[in-house]
Each structure stands twice: as structure tokens, then as C-alpha cells.
Amino acid sequence: MSSASSKTTAGEVLAVVVADHVRRIEQRVPPALSDEDDAVHRLRTAVRRLRTVLAVYRPVFDRDEVEALRGRLAEFGDVLGEVRDLEVRRADVAAVGSAARVPLEARDRLVAELDHQHDEAHRRLVEWCNGQEFADLTAELTRWVSSPPPGPKAHKSARKQVRRRLDKATRKVLKSAEAVDLEQMARSTGDELDELLPEAHRLRKAGRRLSQSTRAVTRKPAKVLGGSRREVGALGKALQSSLGDHRDAILLARYAAEVGASVASDGGDRAAYDRLARAATRRGQAHVAEAVAAVEALRRSSIAAR
Q: Which InterPro entries match (predicted)?
């Protein structure tokens, strides 16, 4: 299905989308289990995109079936997330540490611990995929590809249903943005920052849903909408990425400070670790500024579309 006609139903389009996402998940499992470069990230992204499609376009499918599959995918995503978060932190130690001229000895100590944690997390991923949970998930995905369970909106016009669901996803992003003061978050640290992070997480998740649900219906194999919607989806992606990068920077800062405190308790010099923590904090603040810009652009785009 290269594009949808006015007579194409939502069920037909979303069945193609689901099948395409399942295919991508299946293709990405072996490289992830072999721990190939960036493979866990690609698999985790594929799993998240399918969960997003099921959430945003929920009325096209049977509600109970959607919740059951999303639950299984969430379990898989959690296992993948443990591995991926450690990969990101390891890369950030190298990037931020180099930019801040943190001594190589300190960087090596931070990475060595992360390598150990990563190996353990990847071992748990392999065990999970060799277990009954993954077998059940695979069987469920196969069933969805062969016979997606229809919901109350399955026989409605694809274009109308997709527009409505994306409009709702856009409104949810803007509503979530009203609940968190991003500019204050950029200035905050410690307990004050912790109070703001839950709302920022909800905003990041809303941005991801907008981005991924838009991507699913503006590209082959199930293109329903065109360019203007892609622009909105790109803003959702920018918001997701900037707040995700902020989260990663804050976690890096706290990890560096924690290791620094351990070094100091053993009589060592923690200065290099504190330098890395400060650099990571500054990096996180810059990412919040990017999120502010993305929200403003999305708000302008939403007003122009009325």
C-alpha cells in the first residue's frame, strides 16, 4: 500500500502499519542478541513504535487486545531499556568527558563500571528472549499480523481517523507542556529538579507518541497524510529527543557525582568527576532550551492549522 485512497479504511491502513512494525522487530532481534553496534537501540525503537501505534490508533483495534499486546511489548521494552540506557551513558562519558577535558583515568573508571553493568543487563536480555515471555510475545505478534483484531473504528475512513487521532496527540503534547515550566527546569538542580521531572517525562512521552504515530502514516508502506503532518511529527521528535537528552545528561551528572563521592571516601581526589558532573548538567540545560523552542514551534503550527 503506497498510499491510501478516500475509500481505504482505517483497519486496512493500520493492519499494514502493524505488519511493517512487526517485521522490523523480527529483523532486529538477532543483531541485538549478538550485541552488534547500536542493535539494541534499533530494536528498542521498533518496539516503542509499535506500542505507540497501538496506543494512538487504539479505536481501530479491539481495546482489550491492544492492552494485552502493549503490556507484553512494555515488558520487552523494559529489558531492552536497561541495556540501552547503559550504552548511552557510556557514550556520554566519552563525549562529555572529552569536551570537558576530564582526565582519561577518571573516564576509564566510569566506563569500566558501566561495561560491567551493561554485560549483566545484556545477559538478562538474552535470557528473557530465550524464555516463555518472548515466545508468548512472538506468538501474539504473529497472530496480529495474520488477523488484527478489529475495533469500533476499523471500518471508518482511514484519512479521517488518522487526522483525528493525530490532532488529539498534538493537543496532548501542548496540554502536557502547560503542566511543566521548562525554563525553570533548565535552571533547577537537586530536589527542585526532581519535582519537575515527572511532568517533563509525560511531555517527552507525548512528544514521542506524536512523532512516531505521525511517522507511521506519512511514509510507506501506509502513507495516508503528507508534508504538513510530517513537519508536526518532526517537532514531536525534536521535543522527545531534547528532553530525552536532558534526562541522559542529568543521569550522567548524578552517576559521575556518585562515583566521585566513592573516590573521595577512599581518600582520592574527586575533582575530575565533579568536573564531568558540571559539564553534564550544563549540557542538560542546553537540551531543555531546545525543548522550549520545539514547544513554541508546535504551538504556532497548531494555531496556523485552525
A: CHAD_dom (IPR007899), CHAD_dom_sf (IPR038186)
Binned at pLDDT 50, 70 and 90, residue 7 comes out as: confident
Question: What is the crossing angle of helices 104-129 and 227-265, to 10°?
Answer: 120
Dihedral angle sign, alpha carbons of residues 228, 230, 234, 240: positive
Q: How confident is the model over 27-76, as pLDDT tens digits?
A: 999 999 999 999 999 999 999 999 999 999 999 999 999 999 999 999 99
C-alpha distance from residue 286 to each of 47, 131, 194, 226 (Å)? 29, 42, 18, 32
Q: Is this structure's pTM higher than 0.70? A: yes
Q: Which of 235, 78, 226, 224 lies closest to 169 in space, CA to CA?
A: 235
Q: Are 246 and 284 in contact (CB under 8 A)?
A: yes
Question: What are the boundaries of each domain within the chain?
Answer: 10-304
Q: Which is nearest to 204 in space by CA: 238, 171, 239?
A: 239
CATH superfamily of 10-304: CHAD domain (1.40.20.10)
94 CB-near residues (< 8 Å, 6+ apart):
107, 111
For 85-120, what is each residue's pLDDT tens digit?
Answer: 999 999 999 999 999 999 999 999 999 999 999 999
